Amino acid sequence: MILQNQLWVMVLESKKTTISTRSALPQALAYMMGNPDLDKPRFGMLTNGDDVWFVKLRAQPKPEYGLSRAFSIYTVPSELRSAFQVLKHLRQGITGV
Known about the structure:
The chain is an alpha+beta fold. The chain has helices at residues 25-33, 78-95, and strands at residues 2-3, 7-11, 42-47, 51-58, 64-67, 71-72.
């Protein structure tokens, strides 16, 4: 799912969270690099239903990415609030609202 060509969301389907969220990082970065607007940073969110990771990618002057800590939204309920706060912050930066 892509939101305004800046926030890319990748959801991994896995049973009993046997697939690590981090394993989706290479594919997510490849998709994010496909955005033709190289001047703006891109943001991504990876989740397997238990954990959430956020990614920031800058393509200029050379591709670099940063990865957040893991938010364990299933095992630590307060982490869900923290993950939503990150999404709210991203929304404000992307839309200006």
